[in-house]
Amino acid sequence: SSDVCSSDLFPSHDIELSHKPINIESPILYPSGMVFLDSALVVLDISGDYFLSFFTLDDFDLRNRSIRRGRGPSEEVSVFFISNAMEENKFWYRTHSGIKTVKYQPGKDELIPVGFSPNCDAFSGLTFPLDDDLLGFSQNAQSSEFVKISTDDCAIVDFGPNFPNVGRELSINEKDYLLGTKSLSIRPDGELFAVLYHYFPILRIFNSNNGSLKREVRFNNNQDFPYSAIDVNATPEEKMSTTTNYFVSHATNRFIYASYAGRSLLEIQPNIIRDGFKITDFTNEIHVFDWEGNPVERIVLDISIFAFAVSPDDKSLFSTPFLSVK
Fold it and tell me: Which helix (H) or strand (E) holds 308?
């Protein structure tokens, strides 16, 4: 297909970046995501008294915190995902009840509600706001990788093409596991969205209006097919020896950024068999693509990171090493 291309080598243009520590008076305990807004950096803390912390963009001073943990009318029991930035200081976050879109007011603790999309009982997967509906990952899908879910009546329809071809036929359960583990980012202008896969070095770019595939890019990293990940008879060591690829992605209107490992969890966490999986810093490498799918550059950091965000003008990268927040 003319929409599919492969690359044997990522562009030789590497950018090596050294980190500058940022000390925070009141530490963030478990930073699991972050978003650059027009006038602040938002960091999601999944373990603190407040879920969201807002920092100034010039010197990263803590400006205020919002969404207190609790069961009160203005509180949340959990917040477990925040989006890429939207326009005019808007962003959305996911709770167990649904997706809430809000607008940040600089210097104020309260967020202005913009929209709410409740979870649909008929769909239990992750969803993302897309135009006036929700975009979801297909479950037990036969013909498409995504579904679109109506916010009016929770009607579910197939959306976009089938899963990428990975060289062998996969059962529905294998598709759900191997190709359902992925990172999705929507371009801030809403016209395109990008998906990068955990078990395969693949990027797919889709048109938001109809789900059509714009480009598919395969990075040939010489990994073996991840048979052990779906083999019920595989040992824990064999499963943890499966190559992992993309973890976290972010999108600006110009580029797609994705943290890339190219290593197994056993290489990332040598004691994983003994101690079990732990949330950790996965990689120090970020791949950058433009929205045509062209590999642009590889960012190599001097420390491994867990989460990161990129400013809308593509000039600043903020990261949080999970084991030592900076």
Answer: strand 307-310
